[in-house]
Every structure is written in C-alpha cells, then in structure tokens.
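Reposting from the mailing list since nobody answered there.

I have sequence plus structure tokens for a pair of proteins and want to know whether others read the tokens the same way I do. The first protein:
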Amino acid sequence: MSGSFNAIVIEEVDGKSRAAVKPLTVDQLPAGDVLVDIAYSTLNYKDGLALTGKGKIVRKFPMVGGIDLAGTVAESSHPDWKPGDKVIVNGWGLSERFWGGYSQRMRLKAEWLVRLPAALSEKQAMAIGTAGYTAMLCVMALEHHGVKPGDREVVVTGAAGGVGSVAVAVLAKLGFKVIAATGRAETHDYLKSLGASGFVTRDELAQKGAPLASERWAGGVDSVGGQTLVTVLSQTAWGGAIAACGLAGGADLPGTVLPFILRSVALLGVDSVSAPRARREAAWVRLARDLDPTKIEAITTVEPMSNIIAVAPDILAGKVRGRVVVDVNR
C-alpha cells in the first residue's frame, strides 16, 4: 500500500473530542519498530467511549482510535518480526496514549506484537479481540485458583457482551455449567448456542442483598462491577473465586469483607492492557484451542470502518450482542 490511507482520527475541537475518517500517510505515523498493514480491528466498550467522547479515554490529541488490530508486517527493524508475519496487538494504551487499530496502516513497538496462531484467521482473531483475550485471562485466573468443571455452577455477568460471550463459550467447552447473567431475554437463545445452561437476570444481581447469601457459584467472570460484583461475591461458595475485569456497572465496590474472611472467596483482578507478553501468548494459544470456531462466527458482526463512528453509541447503550469486527479497508 502506497500513498495515503484511511484512519479514524479523534481530535479535540472546542474542548470536545470529535472522531472522523481522515487520510494519513506513513510519514505521519508515530515512531516504532514495525509497520503493519492492518486487516481488521474491533469495537469494544472502551472504543465506544473514545469515539463518542463520553469517557476520558484519549489522553492526547490527535489520536487514532482502536484498541485492537490484526494484520501483516510490512516493514520491521526488529529481529523478532519480518515482513509477512501475521500479528495481533491488544491493549498497551492504544487509543489512549498511542495510535491504534482504526487505520489501514500503523507503526508499532515490536514488544506489543503477538504472533497470530496458525489456527486463527485475522478476522477470527478480531472476533475474539481484547474482549475474548480478556475473557481467556479470566478463565486462566479461575483455573489457577483451582476452580474446576464438575464443581458448582459458574456465573458470567454481562454475558451477551464481548467478554461475556467468549467466557460463556470457553467455560462451557471446558465442561463448566455456565449460568449467564443478562438483562435481555431476547439473547437467551444466542447464549444457549454458546453453551449457557441457565440464566439469572441482571436486575436480580443489581439489587443490594445480604452480605452473605446462599452459596451458589464455584466461580465466575464479572465484567460489570459495582453492586453486581458485590452480589456475585456474596453468593460464591467457600473457596470459590470471581475474576473481575470490567466496570460497566460502576467502579465502586459497595460490599463487605465477609465473603473473603468467612468463606475464603477470592476476588481475582484481571488486567488485559499491560499483561506481559508470555501471558498474552499463552492466552491466544488457549483461545485457538479452547474456543470453538463455530462459536466465534456466531458472536460476530462485521462493520466497515466507515460506519463504526455511527455504531459506537450502541455499545455504550448495551445494544451490541457479541463482537463487532471492524474491516478497516472498507
């Protein structure tokens, strides 16, 4: 690809952020060891905040949005990478402090790149994206704690979202009995197709209850936070664990220490942005192995980059089911 190419550039205008598709050239790209021709990116909740300006995600302007990308190395000055290598990048402050994946080309730091598993296409990798990669980090954290299939049920909150969808699919394939928490009854068939064996309503978990409720969960994956996380912790059985990775429902934790000190429940914080490369590689190897490719297709919608600014408000409003893959070349 030569000459100019398209990117979504977020700029500050009169104190407000504004996103638009604009042409760029390679000379305008930031410094980095590797130039990547991007095939696909994704739309995540954080992307929605950055594109709409409804969250203080962007730390400096102008900014190219997109916290994920998959593509092919075009040029490299680093020995780990050569032209033709298929790569993935998730997190690392893309779309916040560094230019991201909503571009047809991007120059990046070599240490940010992870090799695309041979079993996955670029489109499949972005159907998984940061959301799915985060879900797998959560599953790995639960396994490391000792949560095993055959124990009590496990719960996945925000189940119809990106993290939740992949968590449901992976946990079900591993043999867990998965209960999906969702506020949208119309997603039940979709979640059953991913492997959910039962449901709990979002409103039920959002209600303040007793500090210790009846023991139900062996573990869980929570992407909601706030009262939902407190409720799930209060219902977790002795020795269980909840992997927490999101705060769509709030950053506060309005609960007590009773689940921790009376039931030995563990709250496992999962950060996907700055996870070390070895852990990232392990997560992607597991995703290629433990996530059924047909499930990936079931959770994916593809949108052209030219339309993604219009779609961004939907993910903030909870109207997006599963994963949105962004075709940056359309």
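The second protein, same order (residues first, tokens after):
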Amino acid sequence: MTRAQALQAAHAQFDSGDFRQTLARRVAIPTESQNPERGAALQQYLEAEMQPAFEAMGFECRLLTHPKAKAPFLFAQRIEDPALPTVFGYGHGDVIRGLEPEWKAGLSPWQLTESEGRWYGRGIADNKGQHSVNMQAMANVLKLRGRLGFNAKYLIEMGEEVVSPGLRELCEANKALFNADVMLASDGPRLRAERPTIFLGSRGCCNFDLTIEARKGGHHSGNWGGLISNPGIQLAHAIASITSPTGQIRVPEWVPKELPASVRRALADCEVDGGADGPQIEPWWGEPGLSPAERVFGWSSFEVLAFKTGNPDTPVNAIPPRAWARCQLRFVVGPDPQDILPALRRHLDAAGFPMVKLSMARDEMFAATRIDPDNAWVQWAVASITESSGKKPAVLPNLGGSLPNDIFTDVLGLTAVWVPHSYPGCSQHAPNEHLPPEILREGLGIMTGLYWDLGAGGTPHGAAA
C-alpha cells in the first residue's frame, strides 16, 4: 500500500457515506456544556461514541475526572513501540447551546441535514466534525498499513465551551501519561475555505465587566437631569477612552511591542477572506500600519460584547442608577495576562473614571501562545499537507480566536500544530452551524497523509525541534 493509495482509500471512505453516518450520530447527541440538564449527554458522547471508536482501533481507554470539570475526560492511547514517535491528539465533544428556535426552517441543531451543498448541525464545525476527521484518518492508516507506525495518545474533553474547567489541573497531574513528541489537533477555521491551514497557537482571551453603580434607584430625568450623573454616559466615555474612534487600543500594556520577523514573513502569505457569508473587511478599523492578517493574527483587539443601562425593552423618563458592559480583550504573545485588568485600572483612573468598577467575567482565562513558524515540526507538516492537497498551506503563527493551547504547550511542553477543518463563514456558536463537505473530505485526506507520514519515518522525532 502506497501513500497515494492511502489517500485514495480515505476519499473513497468519505464518498461512501460512512463518515457522514458517523458524524450524524454524534451531532444527534445534544452535548451543550452550558446547559446543566445535559450532563447525561456529555457522558453519553464519551461512553457511547468516543470510547467504542478508539477501542475499535486497539486503543486502551480510561475516563479521568477532576472536581472542577462538569464531565469526565476520555484518555485513549495506543503504544506500538516506545522507540517510535508519539503524537498527542485533542478534541472536545461539547458544543454551544443549540438555539433551536433560531435555525432556518427545515434545520435542527441535533440533526445533520444537507441543504444547498452544505452539511448543517451543531458541532459539525466546532468540534465534532473536526476530531471525527482525525479519528477516521487514524483508522484509515491502521486499516491500510496494519499498524500506525507511531504511538498515539488522545484526550477528549466535554467542557471547552465553558473555558475547560479542570483541564489544566488534569494535565499538571498527568504530565508523564500525556508525554508526546508533538501534538496534532484540529479546531477553529482555515484562513479561507479553499486553502489548507496550519496554526501554531492562539490569541489569549480575557472577558471582563465594567460597572458603574451611581445610586440605588432611578430618578426623573426632568426633575434631576443636569443635577446628577448619568452612569450610561459616564461608562460610554470610559469605554471610548480605551480605543480610538477607529478601534486602535490606547492601553499600551495590552499590545505587543513588535511583531517578530518570522511572524511577519508567515503572515505576508496570508490573505483574510471570510467568503460570501463573511463580513466585509474594513481597512480603516484597528491598528494602523498593519495588514488585515497582522491585525487579527499578530495584534490584540478590544471588543464591547454587551452594554446595558436603564431598561432597553421599556425605556422610561428616568436617569438610570447603574450601567454595565461586558468587554473582551483578545491578546497575542507579549502582553502580561496578569496585568490586563491592573493596566486598565491605571488607565481609567488617569482618564478620570475612578467610579468604573472592574471584575473578571470568568474564573478561567485562555493565555496567548505561539510557536515559531520555522519550527521543524511545522515545516514537516507543511511538506506533508502540500503533498496531500497539492496546495501550499497558510501558516498562521496563532489563531485569531482562543483555545486552551497554553495548557498543552506550557504545562505539557508539547509542540502544538493545529490543522483546522472549518472555514470563517461556518456560523460556529450561532444558529445554522455548517460546513461544506468538501472541506471535511479534503481534511480527511490531509490528516490521513499526516498520520501516514508520521509512521513512515523522517519526522523530527528525537531531534531538537
């Protein structure tokens, strides 16, 4: 069996409809980790879907637990020879809430449905479709070669959409068990639908609240207007001080001092394009002097996710007593995560807004990560993907979004190479989540090629990567 025949067999397996049946069964399990009533579904996904699939490939499986986690973690491993390279895989089976009433007519989050050349269903892009591709690719190699030719370890969690509670502690307690040469995993979108992509980390994410509590109750705007402060106005001005009118961040501690040369080189080959369903890029927004790719993959961005003062549904003629905003900073390697809120506190005090209270919106925070695009494992993966797809993959120093990647790189010490099987317009986290099946089919071929090459020798295994 040759490499080319292995890829042909992978595509034939996809075309047979078997992969779609597997994915449909997994999409049907409503694994909403934000819904406290879905505990049984989270357990079902691991025990009824993941564990049998790994055991069919000769993996040894065990459920691992941590008090902070809402569901167990599934760890699976197949050790063929300690002298062989070991790859660590990761995926998450939990999904964002289904939002059933908001889906288009004829579609359901819990039923894989084909419409206008797309496959719809919650989790198809994030992340059930992606780790299903990788698991099927390993099964393909095992079937065709009779062995993997490498050692494989895989971790499936059920809490990524609620910031992975317990994952860090689990990895700290199991460093020896999870030890590997490289991590190959899939999440997030490609740069563009038609271009294979590798990303080497993720932006960090800090969600926080800004609040002004001026007084206990509202007061008539006619009797008291001009005499007492309006928290909504004050908070609007406080937020406006954080960025320029065009979105340039004005808190210097939140942005990197510079972009490394290797990052600039990698991003020079990357064109951001959300496709027909994506929004139009506005070149005047964000940090001036940077390309669109540099702004989203090489720089930090600040967003206001929600703002409330008074009663938006039924406004009354009263000065509101309070104002609140949920804000978010996506940050790259460089800024100190522990200084994000202290730096904002110093900025707001200096700007005349000591009345604004700051608080973290979540207990957990994803840190920023990035490995060098010139890393030996990265170059190996680029060569493999190019051979499999006939396309030069985009190499992103980090994803624009956030993942628990720092746990794998900083706690486990892994070189993490992510190969996404989605695209920017997939509507993940929103109604009508979908993927073009062509991306899944190409991804299956790419991952079959990567796993085939991993077992064929010639990897950076044992060398300084």
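Reply #1 (J.P.):
I read it the same way you do. The first helix runs from residue 3 to 15.
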